[in-house]
Amino acid sequence: MTDELKLLDYWASPYAVRVKIALKEKGITDYEIQQEDLLNAKSQLLFEINPVYKMIPVLIHNGKPVCESLLIVEYIDEIWKENSPGLLPVDPYQRARARFWTDYFDKTFITFISKLWSQRDEIQQDEKNDFINFLKLFEEELGDKPYFGGNNFGYLDVALIPNYSWFYSYETCTKLSIVSDCPQLIAWAKRCMERDSVKSSMPNELKIYEYVHDLKERFGTI
After folding, report:
1. Hey, where are the domains in the chain?
2. Do 24 and 201 meet the contact criterion of CB atoms below 8 Å apart?
3. DSSP code of 10?
4. DSSP conformational letter for 57
5. Which terminal Cβ of the chain has fewer Cβ within 10 Å, N or C?
6. Pairing mode, if any, of strands 64-67 and 5-9?
7. Count of C-beta atoms within a 10 Å radius of residue 159
8. What's the rounded Cα separation, in Å, for the pair 167 and 171?
9. Does the CA dihedral 96-183-132-216 come out positive or negative?
């Protein structure tokens, strides 16, 4: 039986990018993408298959929807477990640790980034410092490893790298230099960007910056 796959996507969403990277890492390239218009008119299909959150990404596998990006990544890793590489660590402790850092990143990163378009006032230096200190925690977790998964690109790498497209916007809007403050993290990001699964899935950082500007106009914070 041929797997039927459809991804409900939004071009600027780092959460949807996770799914596309995970699929490509597993060698899955034959699937349909439906772009959603999250800012104006979501599709009826999205309301039907994700009635709780009504958000993307949603992966429809043989007619069955799987929602929430991290759950989708784990689902992909399990369903196509015979397709190397495995994304989640095999060791239970390392697996729990990867999930912890991903959960912390998701709960914290958006609180910094969303202020780029939702806050009229200039972001203050204390908060800029907090953002850099937040990133430095991940530098410490990375250590001298090439990837968060060690020698192998894995679950935490898949979860974090899509957000790299937003770094340029944060730097430009705040006059920070992430590359100066977090050189190891930037080196990791550039290493990830050399992978076909990543570079073919990531939105252009300049387009993201234009998108942030459009959001500021929509929110009336320009």
Report:
1. 5-79, 92-219
2. yes
3. -
4. -
5. N
6. unpaired
7. 26
8. 6
9. negative
Number of Cβ atoms within 10 Å of the Cβ of 158: 31
Q: What angle do CA 74, 77, 78 make, to 5 degrees?
A: 90
3.40.30.10, 3.30.420.10, 3.40.50.300, 3.30.499.10: CATH of 5-79 = 3.40.30.10
**What backbone phi and psi angles, to 5 degrees, belong to 123?**
-70, 130
In tens, the pLDDT along 90-132 reads 999 999 999 999 999 999 999 999 999 999 999 999 999 999 9
Name the E strands within the chain: 5-9, 32-35, 58-61, 64-67
- List pLDDT tens digits, range 25-73: 999 999 999 999 999 999 999 999 999 999 999 999 999 999 999 999 9
Threshold 0.90, pTM exceeds? yes
* Domain covering 92-219, topology: Glutathione S-transferase Yfyf (Class Pi); Chain A, domain 2 (1.20.1050)
Q: How far is CA 72 from CA 66, 78, 148, in A?
A: 6, 10, 19
CA Rg value for the chain: 18
